[in-house]
Structures are given as C-alpha cells and as structure tokens.
C-alpha cells in the first residue's frame, strides 16, 4: 500500500510541475488586454487561468493527502522498530567506565614478542 501511495505522490508532483509551467505569468495579461490573447486560447474565451488554477489546487490537495499518508506509514514503521542495533543505556554506561591500567597489557611486552607475527613494522 505504501508503494502505491508513493507512486501516486510522485505522479502528482510531476503533474504540479507541469501545471505550474503551463500557466502564464502576470506579464502575459497585458498583451491580452489589447485584443491578442483570448481568441487564441485552447480553454475558451475566459482563458486557461481558472481551469489550470483549479486543477493546480486539486493536485496540490492530492500531494498534501499523499504526504500525510506517507508520514503515517513512516510513523508506523518507526514504532515497529524496537532497537535497530542501538545498545541500551546500561551497555553505553558500562563501556564508558574508566579502565584500570593494570588490566591493559603493556606495549613493551607486545613488542618484545615475535616480530614476524606483527604486520606493523617497529622502528628500532
């Protein structure tokens, strides 16, 4: 269901881009005032302003509805994910405890071992 809503959302987004690009700007109305604009329109003598404006409003409402639906789907997915590999607070606090120096092996004892076993060259 989520993928269907997502596909509709993308199609509506493409439609609103096309509708906005089809509409004329405010400067185009000045030429129509001198008799050149209304007779050449595809949408009738009133022009495309009301038709495309209403269609843009409908498509924008559809985008709003699909955005809301996608947000609900995302919220439901987030509630279903419990840990997602995130450690609990107790694990984080125990990892942040300071380590006693006696528990760590000394660097000199590691370098005194077999030099061939180490991949890291040691400067002498």
From TrEMBL:
Transmembrane segments: 51-73
Gene designation per UniProt: secG
Membrane topology: Multi-pass membrane protein
Keywords, sorted A to Z: Cell membrane, Membrane, Protein transport, Translocation, Transmembrane, Transmembrane helix, Transport
Major localisation: membrane
Biological role: Involved in protein export. Participates in an early event of protein translocation.
Region of interest called Disordered, as start-end residue ranges on this chain: 103-124
Organism the protein comes from: Marinobacterium alkalitolerans
InterPro entries named in the record: SecG
Localization terms from the record: Cell membrane
Pfam families per record: SecG
Protein name listed in UniProt: Protein-export membrane protein SecG
Keyword Signal on entry: no
NCBIfam families per the UniProt record, alphabetical: secG (TIGR00810)
The keyword NAD is annotated on this UniProt entry: no
Listed PANTHER family: PROTEIN-EXPORT MEMBRANE PROTEIN SECG
Family affiliation: Belongs to the SecG family.
Top-level division of the source organism's lineage: Bacteria
């Amino acid at each position: 269901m989520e993928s269907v809503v997502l596909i509709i959302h993308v199609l509506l987004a493409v439609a609103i881009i096309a509708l906005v690009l089809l509409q004329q700007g405010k400067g185009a109305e000045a030429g129509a005032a001198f008799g050149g604009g209304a007779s050449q329109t595809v949408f009738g003598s009133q022009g495309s302003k009301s038709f495309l404006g209403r269609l843009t409003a409908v498509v924008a409402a559809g985008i709003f509805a699909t955005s809301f639906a996608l947000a609900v789907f995302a919220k439901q997915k987030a509630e279903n994910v419990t840990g997602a590999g995130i450690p609990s607070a107790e694990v984080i606090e125990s990892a942040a405890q300071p380590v006693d120096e006696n528990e760590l092996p000394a660097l000199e004892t590691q370098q005194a071992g077999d030099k061939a076993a180490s991949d890291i060259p040691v400067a002498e």
